[in-house]
């Protein structure tokens, strides 16, 4: 293969180039070997999937035949044994890290230790991949030879493992460089690649440092969806950014538009760039709420009338909306929602959104301030035709009154039969109250910390003034340094305050808003329950009428009545079914939400804790240094 | 510091133009001048001895500032009018005979402090217990044991000294209580050491030492002392205030002329710093209150959360509360160290400033006296020019002229003495000022370090719980695996130094920072934590224990 020469040419010079070319050779031969022998490939796949060490060993022995050159080059250590050992044992080790070591056997930890010992000889191999990554990226810039193209297209399996590995890196660390060059086939292959799990694991284990950097933003995703890795992979392939807040419009219609940049790695036309304003995010929230009853939709930030154009506020809002979109992407149902797709992609949003809103009857633009308030769309509830009928008679709850022409003294009341929902609702309200308190305390502390910082600065300035009197040389030096320490402490105080708002503050804020979203879900349930009660009442009345009339014998009236009864029955069963489904969804969603939030919370607490420990260390260091130098 | 030997830069310079070498042998052999440390007896020493022997003979009035100077002025005659700076330096020795001799010693050792009675009395008027040993002739006994004096008596003494001794900076009294709050050991030791320091400074001043008022003070019974001598404060009340408004008279001694504004700015700036500090501490206290409420919020959070995490929330909340408490403690300590130190400095600068103002008044008096004497001289000349002059009138005029000249001489001398002494005092005072500032900053820093370390150890203790809160927690999220989590739990501050730096600490590590006052509240309902942490976790190995014992803690 002639491109091997090119590959080995641009080598990073921080590694031993001899080793480099050796491993390069080794890899290329492996791949060549694989491409010629699909049976081995098959074996390899199953071996990895089942984490079968023996299979892997066989495989590596098969590889070994083509690599006797290398073993002769480095006879003192058998690279094969190192390779097979590391590959075979890495997987369980990875499992430990991911699943928390709760069930790891002592044997495995022993392997772990031996693995560490093996790591040193195989270390250079670990860094081969970045090299390949860069060289391959460079390679693409050259026009591919006909032979290579043919190779690529005709024999996808042959290059699959290698491109997989490359792509893993390209996706995570060097998005901008490689994505425009990625061909459609690459992506497709990526999507249905059966080995992706292994590949990602391999990457993680072999180059933990790189993985750490690349994956920092995706930790949450990994944690929560480890049981559905495919889902996680898809979510990871979505990159959503809310960028460039821009104030547009004149005085009366001034608003801020944000650019949403989406990159979907699963699709051919993978990049979208659209302009959305805050109102559109609210629309999205309402629309998703309407489309997915019972689901806890990540809520948008709160409305605010004053100071809408201040930089801090805009930045804060931008961050919150970005989080909202990322959260939506993490949920597989919401991710594939048509309205969400439209939101991300449509260039004519104001039109499209109205059309969709009308079609679904979501009333999404008639958005109230309170996130927890909901609107139940009749179309969604009853289906197209029946909804039209109901709408004609003035809505579901109106139909009850409209039919009798007299409004009852008391409207029928819905009592939640399931104590689970009642308890959860109460718990949610309690939690919301507590969190609100906490949020308030945090805000106060934030304000006070800032005050403290400014007073510290004043203090330092006064000390400086005393120093400038130069009462004595030594004394003024001491005072100058003393003032300096205070200034530095002030800086670190400001930093830690910012950190605190960014971690705890934002998490609690998020939590609070999602609690309103939860309340919205409960509202949906009770509203449906209310409709159910109405429908039941209507049905009962109609039936009694029917019975009354049918005793008098068949007539037109009886016929229409019985027709109406069947309609009502259908309506009733529909509502009942929806009501039940929503209940089930809510249960599931609550569970998931609780877990997610717990993880979120704990993560931010940990970040907060670690950062305050670091601040503390910095502070001690400052004082110790001051003490040492001056006293 | 407890030595009464005053620093005298001219101790061994024997180039006085006025010295009378032939007088030396007789006087150094005089029986009441046994001074073994007087290696170079000179005329001045001799003069001093004369002075002292006078006082020993019971002529106590000799020691009120005026008379000795006058006497000296009379005996040595007029000083050359325009003395050069070099000559002035030599004059210092001649002008301040008290500085020369260091025979007299007063050693006072504060042994205790009692706070009794009502709260204000406890706070404002503690009783100081001390031992005295001296060879001053003004004292009846050489040794006094366990004397008791109230702080009010101290105030009286100081007031008297300030009024009667013009040429020196009488040290201001330290605050009677500290901001640690009364009746705790920190307050006790700090106040005692402050008073000790004050006594040392008193004993180091030759003028104060020679004032018999000190003896009256010490030898009077408990709580009976009132100033015996008559105080005549240079100027007081409205007149003082008015005169202070005027521009200061021309000062030929540039050093002192510049000194007063300097002291004044130090005074104001120190006060400024104090107010800023108070503000800072008030803020810090309210901050700690709110930090507490955050902790409380977290504690409440645990009630309805699932059982697995409630413990964690509870612990986290408690830790936050404890951190808040530490902040509040730190605020108190800040006040107690730096604020109190500055407080003394503020008092001191005020008294120095007033002493310098008194010198200005003296200068004014001198100017006036000069004017009077010149007008008298004019008068006398006019009289002489006239033919028909009554001898009676001439006599009167001459007497008036003589009186005026004498006053002028007295004042000139007095001013010279005061100026010379203040120049010396100024150096000492600046040193003290530096020292005071440094001490309080040092204390402040040490306290800060101690409590910041405690805070760190508190935070680090919760770390393990946060990481253990769920299975995916901690470093595993960063792909570092589980093996790191065990090593990460150990505290980063040990006897071997801090884990985050390789710099050796100048002080020995104090294991006390790993425990705080709030541990009890943290572990009150999580006993199992104590089980998992072995008691000897912070125990020292033999080597570090030896190094701990071998070095001082500062």
UniProtKB/TrEMBL annotation, chain A:
Matching SUPFAM superfamilies, A to Z? PX domain
Bias (Polar residues): 112-123
Biased amino acid composition, Acidic residues = 165-175, 217-226
Topology term for the membrane = Peripheral membrane protein
Keywords (alphabetical) are: Cytoplasm, Golgi apparatus, Membrane, Phosphoprotein, Protein transport, Transport
- Gene Ontology BP annotations: protein retention in Golgi apparatus; protein transport; retrograde transport, endosome to Golgi
Q: Which intervals hold domain PX?
A: 236-351
Main location group: cytoplasm
Molecular function in Gene Ontology: phosphatidylinositol-3-phosphate binding
Positions of the UniProt region annotated as Disordered = 1-184, 209-229
Comp. bias regions, Basic and acidic residues: 15-28, 52-68
Cellular location(s): Cytoplasm; Golgi apparatus; Membrane
TM region(s), chain numbering: none
Of the GO CC terms on this record, one is: Golgi apparatus
Q: Which superkingdom is the protein from?
A: Eukaryota
Q: Per the record, a Pfam family?
A: PX
**Key word Phosphoprotein present in the record?**
yes
Question: Which family is it part of?
Answer: Belongs to the sorting nexin family.
- What name has this protein been given in UniProt? LAQU0S20e00386g1_1
Source organism per entry reads Lachancea quebecensis
Q: What is the lineage of its organism?
A: Eukaryota, Fungi, Dikarya, Ascomycota, Saccharomycotina
UniProtKB/TrEMBL annotation, chain B:
Q: Which residue windows does the record flag with biased composition (Polar residues)?
A: 484-503
Its family remark reads:
Belongs to the VPS17 family.
Q: Where is the composition biased (Low complexity)?
A: 472-483
Q: Could you describe the subunit structure of this protein?
A: Component of the retromer complex.
Record's compositionally biased regions (Basic and acidic residues): 37-54
Q: Which residues form the PX domain?
A: 103-221
Q: Name one GO cellular component term.
A: cytosol
Protein name stated in the entry: Vacuolar protein sorting-associated protein 17
Quote the function comment for this protein. Component of the membrane-associated retromer complex which is essential in endosome-to-Golgi retrograde transport.
Please give the InterPro entries that the UniProt record associates with this protein: AH/BAR_dom_sf, PX_dom, PX_dom_sf, Retromer_complex_Vps17, VPS17, Vps17_PX
Against PANTHER family, the record matches this protein to: VACUOLAR PROTEIN SORTING-ASSOCIATED PROTEIN 17
Q: Name one GO biological process term.
A: retrograde transport, endosome to Golgi
Disordered: annotated segments: 1-92, 472-506
